[in-house]
Amino acid sequence: MTTVTATHPAVAGFSLASILNSPQPSVALHPKPLLHSLAAFQAAIDAYVYKGKQEIARRKEVHASRLKEDGDKKRDMEEAIEREKRREIELIAVLEKEKLESKEMEASIYILKKQLASLTEQSSSLDVETNDLRTRIARLLKEKSRDLAVLEERAQAMSPELSLYETALGFSVTGVKEDVLLFRFIRLDEHSPNRVFSFVLDLSKQDYSVTMSEPPLGAMPRLVDALNDTREFWTFIKHVRASFVTELQDA
User: Fold this and answer.
1) Does residue 13 form part of some domain?
2) Is residue 35 exposed (0-12), middle (13-18) or buried (19+ Cβ within 10 Å)?
3) Which of 72, 166, 199, 239 could make an S-S bridge to 213, C-beta 3.0–4.6 Å?
């Protein structure tokens, strides 16, 4: 409420009694001082409102800045969470792959162990077979040496007969290589006395074999079997010569 005093320009000369005694009572107000007061009041209100708006704008800006910071933090956290999720997925994939590789490796190791055990068993078996083969080879070499000694002894004993064969019958023996002999006959064909009938005898194995016959002799397989059964070497030579003559006559 505004207190009006006698010194205020708006109430100078104011008399309540005269106003009440007047037939039409009225109070004269001075507008200029009132307008100045209203203007000052309005200015104060405007300044207050302006200051309030500035404060509101400042608080709004601060709030917006905080919201932006919170939004940035939230976005950073969400991105970090997504990165961790992707990293976790990648780690799970790596772990699954390592588990699979580990299982495959265990399976391979198991197979290799079985193969190693099998090879060890086979090696033991091969050792036994090798020792057996060595024994057999030693026995065969011994038998071969004995047979060669017998052949040499017979050759020496039959040297006169061999000379007779070579001279009268056109028979000769030539070494092709170790344990391989070439036998030649001539004077079998009366129409061509110098025609050569020959065969190659391989003595390198326990069972002898004929590797070449010229001309081919149909009875040769049977004669070789008889030689391996009886070891009658010179009997075999005689039968081969006789077979050449027989097949020549039958031709």
Assistant:
1) no
2) exposed
3) 199
Q: Is 127 exposed, middle or buried (0-12, 13-18, 19+ CB in 10 A)?
A: exposed
Residue 128, SS3? helix
CA 54 to centroid of chain Cα atoms: 75
Residues 127 and 183 placed together within one structural domain of the fold: no
Total of domains in the chain:
2
Q: How far is the first Cα of the chain from the last one, in angstroms, to the nearest whole number?
A: 168
Are β-strands 197-202 and 209-214 bridged in parallel, bridged antiparallel, or unpaired?
antiparallel
On whether both 44 and 144 belong to a single domain, the answer is yes
Residue-number span of the structural domain to which 196 is assigned: 159-250
- What pTM, to 2 d.p., does this model score? 0.40
Give residue-wise pLDDT tens across range 4-55: 444 444 444 556 567 667 777 665 556 666 677 678 778 878 888 888 888 8
Among 157, 180, 212, identify where a domain stops.
Answer: 157
pLDDT digits (tens, 9 = 90+) for 122-134: 878 888 888 888 8
Residue ranges of the chain whose pLDDT lies below 70: 1-17, 19-20, 25-34, 37, 147-148, 151-152, 154-166, 168-169
Does residue 18 form part of some domain? no
